[in-house]
Prior knowledge:
Blueprint: E1 2-7, E2 10-15, E3 24-28, H1 31-44, E4 49-51, H2 56-61, E5 65-71, H3 76-92, E6 100-106, H4 111-116, E7 124-129, E8 134-137, H5 144-154, E9 184-189, H6 205-211, E10 219-224, H7 231-235, E11 243-247, E12 253-256, H8 269-277, H9 289-298, H10 324-331
Amino acid sequence: MVTIVSSYPTYRILFINCHVSAHEIIFFISPCMFLWLIFVVAAWASSAIELNDDTFIGSLLSTNYTLVYFYRDHCKYCQEFSSDYEYLSLLYNGNDTSGFQIVKINGAKNMRANSLFKVDRYPTLKMYHNSTSEIVTFQQQRLFEAIVDFIGYQVPGIEPDYTKFKSQVPMLPGNTIEEDLTNTLVIFMSPNMDGWEDFGRPNHFMERAAASQNYKNVKFAVVDIFDQKSDLQQKYLVSNFPSAIYFGTNGRFKVLDTYSTNPDSRLEEQELLGFLNSLQNEDGWFENCDQLAQVIENSKYEGHKYHRPGFNMVQDRFENDHDPEYDDILEHLEL
């Protein structure tokens, strides 16, 4: 059990069943120092807040509810969660009337806070209720939506403010035509795909690319292939996902993995940036869709001899052009 009591201008922190040498630690501060503390806490609330052993008590006492994220350096799972923490902080912190804040503490370096909240693994999320001194541990899988639900259940009336972040990568309607997409990179994807779960958040590599000065002349957009039927997807024979098309000027375009049958294609950040950098080169451009269809028809995938069901929109040459060596293997195959 942990009890934190505030009596102006004195902070009294009672530690019960904690590994500290004293059961009670009292901080005496002047009225000016108290006002300064309130000012500092208010300033922190506008962004991600990192606390330590010297600051976490004052921060906990400054508001009604605090979600504390305990992490440690070189923790793989902490590194994976850090982007979600930053996004959650953006959505919740700085709402003056909410009485709620999200903070983080390096548990390995701040043992007093770590001991007070009884943290024995990382990352750990704990909700502190100031009025009752109750501490509730988040015990579900660390999914963004699950944490939002947890916050909503613990803090009455709280809602994330999604207006704080405006994506620079809009979702295209299904009837978008290429004439509206000059100098635009279009990604064909779904948020359910590996590497795209956090699309639409400031930490996603598409948002970073769209905000980069290196690509200030490029517009970015996406098509959710499972949410809508895209005319672009059909016209440009897009049969592999995620993939990309860059629409240049005068009807010219360049494609990335749109007709590949490689099941390991994930369109990761480095591949996408390499594609963007290749736009300066003259090779790889198509003048029209007929050229693209001809290339697809003349291509032959050598990894396996069939396309994945539902992903083949252009007839494969394999249907009419069997490999004799492959046929011989089939003929002598014994099951």
